[in-house]
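Field reference: sequence -> structure
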Amino acid sequence: MRQLGQAPARLTAEQVAAVLNCQPSDVRILVAARLLKPLGNPPANAVKFFATVELLELIKDKAWLAKVTNALNQHWQRKNAAKKSCSATCLRIGHVPPTGHVGDAISTVKP
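Structure field:
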């Protein structure tokens, strides 16, 4: 039985995100970058758990925290660049970008 004030032995992605001050979806990015490792060998669609003791050690490491920050920044920069590239291509050929507004796309397409 867990004592009051004691952290659980396993953390969910949401709990890990709270500790790292990031979004729960960012935990998946950190796993893919091999900066976090879930416990066991969970299937892709399973709930992932992470060892609290390991996370508490990692967050003391300033170099690891920098790697986490860089990995997340690079991921979102690539994602945003791809989105911009797709939007520009879609506009050039006259298609509405998937996340854009129809009126915006139509008004910027040259006849």
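Note: Residues 101-111 have pLDDT under 50 and may be disordered.
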